[in-house]
Amino acid sequence: AGGPWEECFEAAVQLALRAGQIIRKALSEEKRVSTKTSAVDLVTETDQAVEALILSELQERFPSHRFIAEEAAAAGAKCVLTPSPTWIVDPIDGTCNFVHRFPTVAVSIGFAVNQELEFGVIYHCTEERLYTGQRGRGAFCNGQQLQFRETDLSKALVLTEIGPRRDPATLKLFLSNMERLLRTGAHGVRVIGSSTLALCHLASGAADAYYQFGLHCWDLAAATVIIREAGGIVMDTSGGPLDLMACRVVAAGTREMATLVAQALQTINYGRDDER
Ligand code: IPD
């Protein structure tokens, strides 16, 4: 039998699949691209249309719930996580990939109650893979249960994302962090252009650790539930507990590996989502 938020979870799955269909179709079409916080922070009409679709349907079905969503935040809405049931939505994660037709693009819908993440739904639009996690009930990809693969950092495949800033100081820190990770003996570092799908790769055992500075709560909310339910750890780069609004994260199969990754990193300060 379903838990108390089963109806919400089902709604998230249906909307992610519908949004995915729209994104898949739009991927090969011409796009009008605008920029947000930097010249490489992109948005298209499809991001906005898909977010409007998801939010309007959810608002109609769950009028008392609250919403945090990427394009609403870009338009000035505050990102505040209260105890109320809250949907945390990224209509297209991997917008830069989407613009370039690089087929690594996802819809991400997370849901929190009492500031605790209850479920996450991430849809890989081009590969048609639906990742889900519900607190206490496991993580799945197209119905198959996900389980972390445990390994040492010295044998790990590590994923990261660049983040939106390109000023020389940030780039220097970003590259130096990558060098520090490679010096641990990790087998490799990959950048695929989507934080949420990178985290889903960890949960499916296709990669072993993830770190990033400069991502947002909507990149993290759904994926965090999926990682935890697959047996993994999501934490702050300080080594402390995850802070959804802190724009930074480390994830791995074990606390030991996550801690080693965190210790290798120098902080890149991107501020907080709830202080913009
Ligand atoms: C971004 C992507 C990118 C990561 C950024 C995210 P968006 O999400 O996941 O790879 O580096 O931090 O914000 O803007 O495409 O939804």
Strand order of the largest sheet: 3-4-5-6-7-8-9
Q: Biggest β-sheet: count, sense, barrel? A: 7 strands, mixed
Structural class: alpha+beta
Percent of residues in helices: 25-40%
Using only C-alpha atoms, the radius of gyration works out to: 17 Å
Q: H/E order of the elements?
A: HEEHEHEHEEEEEEHEHEHEEH
Specify the number of helices.
8
End-to-end gap: 41 Å
Instruction: Based on Cα principal axes, name the global outline.
Output: globular
Beta-strand content estimate: 15-25%
Poorly predicted runs are none
| Cofactors, ions, other ligands | D-MYO-inositol-1-phosphate
Output mean pLDDT.
Answer: 97
Number of beta strands: 14
GO molecular function, one term: glucose-6-phosphatase activity
Pathway: Polyol metabolism; myo-inositol biosynthesis; myo-inositol from D-glucose 6-phosphate: step 2/2
GO biological process, one term: inositol metabolic process
Enzyme class: hydrolase
Can you describe what's shown?
With about 280 residues, the protein is α+β, with helices and mostly antiparallel strands. About 35% of the residues lie in helices and about 25% in strands. The strands form three sheets. A seven-stranded mixed beta sheet has the order 3-4-5-6-7-8-9, with helices on both faces. Strands 11-10-12-14-13 form a five-stranded mixed beta sheet, with helices on both faces. The radius of gyration is 17 Å and the shape is globular. It starts with 5 loop residues before the first helix and ends in a 12-residue tail after the last helix. The protein binds D-MYO-inositol-1-phosphate. D-MYO-inositol-1-phosphate binds next to strand 4. This is Inositol-1-monophosphatase. One of its GO terms (cellular component) is cytoplasm. It is an enzyme of class 3 (hydrolase). Its EC number is 3.1.3.25.
